[in-house]
């Protein structure tokens, strides 16, 4: 009965302060959701392969990439991997992975987004797999047998039993039928990410290689032995060497100093983004805690009155403490439950932005749930215990002295400055992140609406091009090319420098028709149009700005000169007819490479098998459908596949776009929480000064004078917070921008905007409170006081 009475008193208190209670719950819910989401993301990605009992003995065999300084490639030939196991002491076994670039077809439906890999039969001994039904050994040891994930089963087969069903895959123009023999469970925190698993093909000759070492054998020992054995071949003998790297070295992608090989079938996490997420979680938690403290401080006066009334009515010390504990604890629990609902709604978007694979069930796993419950317990019990302990010792007059004292005002000022400083930093980070994102999007505009179809295994594309131009109205422009743009091979360049050294760079060579620049939205800077250049020269070439900057001596006009003058490996027949603007093909963290665009005559493009197609955005889906239909009419033996060039380029810059999106979202959350916190502070401040303000109104103080009186301290807090936050945030952002070969700079608006935003939030919040206070009758107020 007593507990029912306590609950009744708590609910009555909430109802009397329903607006204040609602704001407190919303503020805490948003803060807990943001904190728990990012904290769980950090745990999920940081402790990859946590349940793998052999993770400390598994290593990836990598070697130097001969085409990119500082990059390691997870590759070894099958002979090299076998030699390592046979010749190097301490190596227990090896496992290799083959990536299938294939689409999956079932009953006329094509699935192009499934990740399919082949692996050795030793895969389960390296990375444990949970089997729902079927025989995994059969899928990994027999040809044309596959295992598929449970989510793929639901997507393709629905409620049908998939075992024994046949799926058809198409890769490099070949169609292969596979029997489904195994269904695999979804796995969290798994290094390997795949939807379809099968054995390696008979013509497999090398790929990503994993080694399992014997217990108590060090990776350094094995690495040294591999390098000493010259019979184990690398991609370029005497120029490249092997590395035996741990699993964290493989999936933690460094942001600066090294270039990490992207592996579609490996869950790779950006180290920088991971720690930025953890930092954002901590900052949001700090703001939420400041709000929580402010809200509770604002209610202490009313709670103290309630305590003394209950004492007079015969309430015991235990009952009063239970009531205070119940008030705080229930508020925190309700906020926590609401935060879980928020997380459930935003998790799909969060996963899409950060390329994560978290599930909502992971929040209730043994890794996360105890931490969240412990955090919840601390949030619920500590403030309630402290408040009840202090309040029970104070008389009403003693509390008024403390609440109006210097110590209390200093505490409030510190809380406000901390909130303002964090919000200032987040706003500045948002400005710079958004500017850098806009730069990426501007560079990506070359590829908007562009698709690429065909590859080296496709038939000549000229007949298809002619049909598309006649029958598909949704095409703006179409170019016939001899190869891909974003996946084109490159050639190494050694560029002599004035100091006698050589700079290592790369040359990208493209071959296409005269409409290429129009299709790719590339601006020509000098020279005649491509069509006219084909008339003037037998072998015309266009070069980009980077080519001129790196290979052409200063003051030399390359127009009309032989390409061989600047690139000794080029054919002397090629003549430079003009220059074009730089356009990127990789991440903006790398400098744009020199590019040559060859414009062969139409007769020389007879065997070209790649089309670059610019689509009208309003008809994109319908146009692709029409292209697919005509493709299958002409190339009946090969399924239609295409690459969205804009999506691929954005994927190569995804981690930088993700940074901007994460910071923007959390800056908004930080500002919302700051606004809620300011409400609590101003609510407290205005009611503490209501007698003073009433007297000022009676003596003729204007509305604006009172508004300024209330706003002035918050203006001072904003200035202090701004001066604290700016140098710290500037240092962090400058370090982040250094990884880009092309990055934005700080502008005057970037410097001013954080202060203006914080000041505006303060003015609006305090202004609302001042407006409400101005409507209070000062005479009635003084009578009450």
Automatic annotation (TrEMBL):
The chain crosses the membrane at residues 20-43, 273-293, 328-350, 362-388, 409-429, 663-685, 706-731, 751-773. It is found in: Cell membrane. Residues 279-393, 665-778 form the ABC3 transporter permease C-terminal domain. Pfam families: FtsX (PF02687). Keywords: Cell membrane, Membrane, Transmembrane, Transmembrane helix. It comes from the Bacteria. InterPro entries: ABC3_permease_C (IPR003838), Macrolide_Exporter_MacB (IPR050250). This is FtsX-like permease family protein.
């Amino acid at each position: 009965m007593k507990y029912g009475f306590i609950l009744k008193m708590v609910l009555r208190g909430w109802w009397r302060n329903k607006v204040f209670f609602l704001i407190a719950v919303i503020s805490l819910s948003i803060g807990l959701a943001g904190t728990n989401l990012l904290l769980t993301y950090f745990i999920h990605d940081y402790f990859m392969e946590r349940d793998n009992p052999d993770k400390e003995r598994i290593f990836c065999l990598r070697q130097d990439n001969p085409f990119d300084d500082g990059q390691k490639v997870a590759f070894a030939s099958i002979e090299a991997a076998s030699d390592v196991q046979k010749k190097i002491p301490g190596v227990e076994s090896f496992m290799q992975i083959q990536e299938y670039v294939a689409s999956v077809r079932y009953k006329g439906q094509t699935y192009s987004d499934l990740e399919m890999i082949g692996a050795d039969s030793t895969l389960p001994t390296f990375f444990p797999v949970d089997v729902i039904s079927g025989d995994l050994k059969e899928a990994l040891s027999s040809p044309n047998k596959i295992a598929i994930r449970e989510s793929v089963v639901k997507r393709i087969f629905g409620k049908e039993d998939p075992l024994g069903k046949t799926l058809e895959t198409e890769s490099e123009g070949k169609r292969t039928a596979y029997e489904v023999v195994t269904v695999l469970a979804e796995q969290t925190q798994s290094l390997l990410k795949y939807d379809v698993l099968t054995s390696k093909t008979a013509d497999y000759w090398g790929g990503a290689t994993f080694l399992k070492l014997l217990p108590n054998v060090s990776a350094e020992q094995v690495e040294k032995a591999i390098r000493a054995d010259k019979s184990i071949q690398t991609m370029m003998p005497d120029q490249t060497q092997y590395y035996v790297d741990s699993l964290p070295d493989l999936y933690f992608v460094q942001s600066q100093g090294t270039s990490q090989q992207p592996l579609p079938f490996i869950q790779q996490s950006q180290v920088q983004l991971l720690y930025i997420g953890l930092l954002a979680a901590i900052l949001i938690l700090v703001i939420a805690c400041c709000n929580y403290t402010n809200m509770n401080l604002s209610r202490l006066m009313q709670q103290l009155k309630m305590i003394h009334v209950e004492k007079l009515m015969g309430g015991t010390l235990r009952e009063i403490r239970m009531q205070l504990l119940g008030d705080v604890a229930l508020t925190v629990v309700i906020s926590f439950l609401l935060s879980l609902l928020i997380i459930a709604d935003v998790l799909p978007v969060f996963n899409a932005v950060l390329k994560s694979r978290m599930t909502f069930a992971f929040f209730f796993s043994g890794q996360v749930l105890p931490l969240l419950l412990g955090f919840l317990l601390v949030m619920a019990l500590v403030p309630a215990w402290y408040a009840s302990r202090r309040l029970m010792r104070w008389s009403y007059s003693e509390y008024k002295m403390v609440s109006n004292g210097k110590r209390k005002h200093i505490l409030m000022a510190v809380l406000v400055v901390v909130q303002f400083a964090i919000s200032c930093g987040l706003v500045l980070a948002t400005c710079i992140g958004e500017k850098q994102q806009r730069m990426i999007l501007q560079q990506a505009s070359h590829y908007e609406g562009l698709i690429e179809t065909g590859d080296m295994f496709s038939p000549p594309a000229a007949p298809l091009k002619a049909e598309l131009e006649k029958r598909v109205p949704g095409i703006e422009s179409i170019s016939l090319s001899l190869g891909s743009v974003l996946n084109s091979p490159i050639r190494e360049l050694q560029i002599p420098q004035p100091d006698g050294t050589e700079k290592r760079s790369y040359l990208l060579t493209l071959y296409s028709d005269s409409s290429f620049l129009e299709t790719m939205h590339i601006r020509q800077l000098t020279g005649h149009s491509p069509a006219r250049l084909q008339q003037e020269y037998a072998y015309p070439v266009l070069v980009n700005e980077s080519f001129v900057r790196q290979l052409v001596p200063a003051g030399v006009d390359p127009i009309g000169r032989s390409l061989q003058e600047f690139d000794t490996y080029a054919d002397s027949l090629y003549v430079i007819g003009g220059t074009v603007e730089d356009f990127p093909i990789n991440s903006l963290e790398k400098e744009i490479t020199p590019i040559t665009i060859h414009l062969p005559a139409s007769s020389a493009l007879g065997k070209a098998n790649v089309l670059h197609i610019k689509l009208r955005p309003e008809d994109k889906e319908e146009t692709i459908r029409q292209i697919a239909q005509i493709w299958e009419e002409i190339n009946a033996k090969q399924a239609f596949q295409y690459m969205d060039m804009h999506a691929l380029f954005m994927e190569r810059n995804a981690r930088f776009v993700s940074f901007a999106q994460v910071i923007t979202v959390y800056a908004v959350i930080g500002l919302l929480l700051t606004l809620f916190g300011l409400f609590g502070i101003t609510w407290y401040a205005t009611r503490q000064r209501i007698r003073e303000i009433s007297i000022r109104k009676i003596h003729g103080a204007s509305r604006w004078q009172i508004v300024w009186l209330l706003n002035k301290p918050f203006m001072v807090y904003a200035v202090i917070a701004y001066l604290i936050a700016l140098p710290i945030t500037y240092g962090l952002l400058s370090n982040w921008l250094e990884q880009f070969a092309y990055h934005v700079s700080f502008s005057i608006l970037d410097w001013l905007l954080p202060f203006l935003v914080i000041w505006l939030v303060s003015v609006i919040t305090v202004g609302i409170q001042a407006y409400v206070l101005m409507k209070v009758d000062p005479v009635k107020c003084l009578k009450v006081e």
